[in-house]
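Task 17 of the worksheet. Students: predict the tertiary structure of the chain below and write it out as structure tokens. Keep your answer in the requested format; marks are given for formatting as well as content.
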Amino acid sequence: MQAGVYSGVENLKLQEWPKPELNSGEMLVKVRYAGICGTDMMIHAGKHPREVPPRVLGHEIFGTVVETRAAGESKLKQGDRVAVFPLISCGRCAPCREGNAHVCEKLGLIGIDTDGGFAEYVKASPEQLIPVPPGVDDEQAALVEPLSVAVHVVRTSEFTAGDTALVTGAGPIGNLIAQVLRAVGARRVLVSEAKPFRRNLAERMGFAVVNPLETKPLEAVRRLTGESFADHVFEATGAKAAYHDAIQSCKIRGHITFVGLPKLSPEVDVLSLVFKEIRTSGARVYTPKDFLVAISLLERGVIDVKSVVTDRLPLKDIEEGLRKMHDPDSSLKILFNL
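Model answer:
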């Protein structure tokens, strides 16, 4: 089969690759769409600590079941449309035993620890395949994985309907977080983004936006809401300045969820966190429930995932897709179709 194989730093090319062979209890999925994630870009740059080449990348995957060696109790069958839940948990560590397998001490991922979805076929266990209903089309289903990140971020925060929220960063995850907040009843959502392309997209999607290089997000929060601070802040950039904006803009006894991944350990104003008694949390990936909620939101038509897709390319153009992803001024989410 044809697959996008990472062979070393900045070396990811389409080549012939063995079709996955199923072990007992596994299913084979014919990939329809696979999205590029920031993690794939990190791997491509040789900066992921765990990736060992050669490896087929890609963990944002949608496709159809074409073969199964699963036990008889599985409800999935050939022809079923599925989103792939790519996490691989050990099932034995303390987080797994406590019901938190999504933050397993030895957490693995399809596309890093096993071959991923930049290929004609990918294999997975039945538990990793989430059925997609007819009300969600193929391209929407391709965005279930990143949308599940946003769902998890909001679901595990202290947000409740009627609250105000500031989202720092309008990349794919920040944009989707803002959409989820709006869908579940936020009174007002303000999006802070420095890059014009991403800021303009968020504005076209109906969000109030601010350029933090020109206006302090706190000033925009006060102008937009008429209140002194935001109830919740969702930090989705990992940028040093955004941490300052998040703490400054959050109300006393408010809540900040940190989502962005900083390249270096950031300076954080702990004194303000203490004096304002701000509660903080981190959100990393998702659970199977988050996939189900994401699919439900898509089925109800309250999330526009297609607007974050800036390019749709055949897998043969995988190198072009990676090149485009390096330009945040013109690309947001890129899908490969097979």
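Marker's comment: The CA atoms of residues 31 and 175 lie 26 Å apart. The chain has eleven helices and 18 strands.
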